[in-house]
Amino acid sequence: MKKFLFFIFIIPYSCAQHEKSADNKPGQLNDGIQTSTLMEAGIDETLINAMQDSITDGSYHNIHSVLILRNNKLVYERYWPGHDENRSTNFTGQTVHHRDSLHDIRSITKSITGAAVMIALDKGNIENLDQRLFDFFPEFSKYATG
Fold first, then answer.
1. Which pLDDT belongs to residue 92?
2. What pTM value is reported for the model?
């Protein structure tokens, strides 16, 4: 039996939603992300449907979105309503989440950033963990005061 690693993220910024076509393939947008179907990616759709049903029926609380990339192609994208907060407007309550939803994610940002940094390090995009952030954004180097 093949094992798959899935990451479930509450999306912290705008992410274009790829509308599904008749064959359950996320629609292709002009955003550089290629799409495919679960079947073409070799993923058992019954497992994904069971996950989706469990999220929808409340077995897993407060999941706002799931996107699955396999072989660098988006094969699944879905959003659910759920509890959210907005500190700037003092809003707390149920929100219908969609591709342009902003989420109050707080400390999960550290995990996502840490994973992204380690991937960049592994791919050689970062020389070492002591490299300065302003090395990547020289146009902002005048703000490097520390």
1. 72
2. 0.60
